[in-house]
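Researcher: I'm preparing a figure for a lab meeting and need a structural model of a single chain. I don't have an experimental structure, so a prediction will have to do for now. The sequence is pasted below. Please return the structure as tokens so I can convert it later.
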Amino acid sequence: MTTMTREASLIVQMSGVALSDAIRSKQVSCVEVMGAYLDHIGIHNASVNAIVALADRDLLVRRAAERDAQLARGQWLGPLHGFPQAIKDLDDAAGFPTSMGSPIFKGQVAASDTLYVERMKRAGCVVIGKTNTPEFGLGSQTYNAVYGTTRNAYDPSKAAGGSSGGAAVALALRMQAVADGSDHAGSLRNPAAFNNVFGLRPSFGRVPGVTGDVFSPSLTVMGPMARSVPDLAMLLSVQAGYDPRAPLSLDSDPELFRHPLARDFRGTRVAWLGDFDGAIPFEPGVLALCERALHAFESTGCIVEHVRPDWPMEEVWQNWLVLRSWRIAAWLKDCYADPTKRRQLKPEALWEIERGLKLTATEVTDALNARSAWHARMQDFMQTYEFVLLPSAQVFPFDAATHWPREVAGVSMDTYHRWMEVAIPITMCGSPSLNVPAGFNPQGLPTGLQIVGRLRDEWGCLQLADAYDQATRWVKRCPSPLLRSKMMEISDECRHMPGANVHFEVDRGRSD
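Model: Understood. Here is the structure written out token by token.
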């Protein structure tokens, strides 16, 4: 087994912002950083299968040395200079395979970079491999026939969530300083909740993407994941910004996300949606932890009210089903049309494609119009409430051998993604949503909740998330049991999960 020096261990414990500063000031070299992360991956990745398609070590060390040579010439590329980075395996990184978790595309090597990967490389990162994802990103459980199952950072017998499951686990176990991901139905929010990290689903256009028709807004967005809110903002500052190849991308200056996050939240009105008055089922314990976390928001000065917009959630769900199947059928119809490839598609993909191919133009248009109506209702609601809070997941991490929960709180799940219904109202309204950790159940399994902001107000979400993190410090206080050693002091409270009696003290930036 690979072993690590104390210095190398300290490197992987650094926050992304601290690591960036240390590299720029030459306190550590890019070669040292690369070696520390590769050693750490060597120790932890085999037990969780988060990073896949890892490149040759000698090649990666040479690329890190090139970054050191650039620094020696006074050429600092940006905040990710020298960062070892694994890219979600739904997106292209030149020279690396993009399998999308499907045997159909196994061994397919990308010739170029996805737009946001291009930006991350321009900011200095060194791509080392990919992070695992479900087949075609379908479902919030990261397993596939190409690389296998990714396991939870807090209990490897449990699911990692998804579809950015590999990214979340790699973050939680310090195998990456920051991580990229994408989100259609919770894929940046659910795995972040399952692994006690932060994940931001931005508004459409904040992080530009170029896939298929660039003139139609998608339900899918790309965004950042991190172990701290400043790290999340740092990566968003790299990913965001206008690009003419994505004509609907937002043209505001991404430098905003590098500003100080401090803000006075006294008097800010926040709505807690809970379970939408019983419309969405939750595993026992999830809502209780999220409701306990509301005290932390109140400690920042927010006024939290238990209220929800008057709208039938089943209608939102049914219209989303139409739009999702329509999009997936358009994307995967060529695979479906080929009998050999069709046999290699997982059942959930076949279900989506076959539903999508049966849809009429009128049905799709009706669903789009219904989505617009829901968006308008939420924007009206958020004139009163600057932020909305709701859980990020309906269940705790479950058995990693289970493809998806068939039942939640005694309610049968009628589709493979119904157990993630709580993510859909936010996907459909278009607002940014940021998962923050909400604590642990008695078995030591994490959950999280969503901070939802007004349209395009990622900055507000980041500010509130940072204030909440100052009050709770879940990531800092409660790292994965797989990481606990003499070099990582863990409080007795976190040794004995779930930390039920947390006293929030925002002025001291910690909790006792």
